[in-house]
Amino acid sequence: MVALAEAITHPAAGAALDIEQVGHAFDIDGTELPVLSDVSISVEPGEFVALLGPSGCGKSTLLRLVAGLDRPKAGTLREDEARITRPHPSRVVVFQDPTLFPWRSVWDNVALGLEAQGILKSQRHRVDAALDLVGLSSFRNAYPHQLSGGMAQRVALARALVNDPKILILDEPLGKLDSLTRITMQAELVALWQRKGFTTLLVTHDAEEALVLANRVIVFSDRPARVKADIRVDRPYPRHRGDPYLADLRRQILGLLGLDATW
Ligand SMILES: Nc1ncnc2c1ncn2[C@@H]1O[C@H](COP(=O)(O)OP(=O)(O)O)[C@@H](O)[C@H]1O
Ligand SMILES: [Mg+2]
Question: Which Pfam family would be a valid example here (predicted)?
Answer without folding.
Answer: ABC_tran
